[in-house]
Amino acid sequence: MAVLLETTLGDLVIDLYTEERPRACLNFLKLCKVKYYNYCLIYNVQRDFIIQTGDPMGTGRGGESIFCQLYGDQARFFEAEKVPRIKHKKKGTVSMVNNGNDQHGSQFLITTGENLDYLDGVHTVFGEVTEGMDVLKTINETFVDKDFIPYQDIRINHTVILDDPFEDPPGLSIPDRSPEPTKEQLDSGRIGADEEIDDLKGRSADEIEEVQAEKEAKTRAILLEMVGDLPDAEVKPPENVLFVCKLNPVTTDEDLEIIFSRFGPIKSCEVIRDWKTGESLCYAFIEFEKEEDCEKAYFKMDNVLIDDRRIHVDFSQSVAKIKWKGKGGRYTKDDFKEYEKERDKPSKLSLKEKVKPKQDAKYDLVLDEDIEESQTSQSHLAKKQKKKKHHHSEDEEDDKRTKTSKDSDRKHEGERCREKIKSEKKDRHRSRSRSQERDYTYSKQKDKYKEDFRIRDWDKKADRCRSPKKSKDKERSKYR
């Protein structure tokens, strides 16, 4: 109940679920027995998903069941077995490929991933890989194109049945030995299985370094294209532009143009400066009209003394002047300049009332009916305007009346407010004067009371100072 598949990369041993899937296992075993799978290409490799084979044409559209050889074309496919349900849980699960109508032929797949639940119920599981998982891993890691077709020629060379519990059906023709492959089967257009894919074989160390540098440059260019700093990964800098560095800050555009113009006409010469301070950054770009003139300047002007500085000249590697809309920035500096110019311009839009009617052509065809209609329309418009003016004049008179009444009311209110303010001021002045009078009388009374009190005290003291005899005599004289 096992089959050995000999592939170009190694051997695989498949154990079959003969009790759960008897019809699918019978079909697979008998196809292996008649050498149907010999030289079948592995034409679909999706990493960590599936490996698909079983089509002798190698396209994924062919193949037929063993029942087609026994009963004819009407039995090219057979019905899928769905009970019991077996899931695609582990790597190396082998199942028959569904043709879209819940039927199977000769194509089968081997899973290279785990828990592929979306394959359950579509493709019928009938076995699993028990030996050769390392071979399955190498097939899984092979390089493929955009259609998941491997670049390398990987195929089944031979099949060996290790155990077959089913009897051969009557009418089945079994070959004595393996058939030889046809030219169509061998001419796959892919890299041979025995060929070594080594681009660096037979090259010197310098050549290997150049190849590696080119690969690194390509990867960097692709990254810059993805970010949006380059319009295209294969874009090349212009060959008629020179890069001049190590300049003296005193050197100007005109000086460089005069010096380099002896090699040929110059389109532009620009010393790069700081956008804030305007100071020279000591390097420049010189664009020639011809590439030949640029090459002459490159060979003769390197390490030349200009303004007490020895300059360095090289071909420009910049693509900053190429006009394009990047993926990240979307717009270039020129686009923003145009936008600013358009923003400063007066807008062409205006309200319908302010738009002047367009003048008609001088020589237009005019009919009498049109003239009459225009006259009647003009008369109606004149009447409407008169009515509007009359209503407008009445409205203006009403507005004037209301305005005058409002003004008079405002004047009366202002006078009343002024009178109130004056009366309040008078009352305040009166109250202040009364309080001052009260304070004055109170202070006078206080002073009088103090003087009387002092006089009394003085009299008492004087009486005490007198002799007792005199006082007695006075008292006696009072009683006499």
Which structural traits does this protein have?
single chain; 480 residues; alpha+beta; nine-stranded antiparallel β-sheet; four-stranded antiparallel β-sheet; 17 strands; elongated
Question: Would you spell out the secondary-structure blueprint of this structure?
Answer:
Elements: E1 2-7, E2 10-16, H1 22-33, E3 40-41, E4 44-46, E5 50-53, H2 66-71, E6 78-79, E7 93-96, E8 103-104, E9 108-111, E10 124-131, H3 133-140, E11 155-163, H4 183-186, H5 205-227, E12 241-245, H6 253-260, E13 266-273, E14 280-288, H7 291-301, E15 305-306, E16 309-310, E17 312-315, H8 333-344, H9 368-465, H10 468-479
Antiparallel strand pairs: 1-2, 1-11, 2-10, 3-11, 4-5, 5-9, 6-8, 7-9, 7-10, 12-14, 12-17, 13-14, 15-16
Outline the structure in words.
With 480 residues, the chain is an alpha+beta fold. The chain has 10 helices and 17 strands. The protein has helices at residues 22-33, 66-71, 133-140, 183-186, 205-227, 253-260, 291-301, 333-344, 368-465, 468-479, and strands at residues 2-7, 10-16, 40-41, 44-46, 50-53, 78-79, 93-96, 103-104, 108-111, 124-131, 155-163, 241-245, 266-273, 280-288, 305-306, 309-310, 312-315. A hairpin with a 3-residue loop joins strand 4 (44-46) and strand 5. The longest helix is centred in the last third of the chain and has 98 residues, at 368-465. It is elongated and about 165 Å long.
One letter per element, helices H and strands E, the order comes to: EEHEEEHEEEEEHEHHEHEEHEEEHHH
| Separation of the first and last Cα atoms | 176 Å
Query: Segments where pLDDT lies below 50 for 5+ residues?
Result: 325-330, 351-356, 358-367
The shape is elongated
Work out the strand percent: 15-25%
The helix tally amounts to: 10
Number of strands: 17
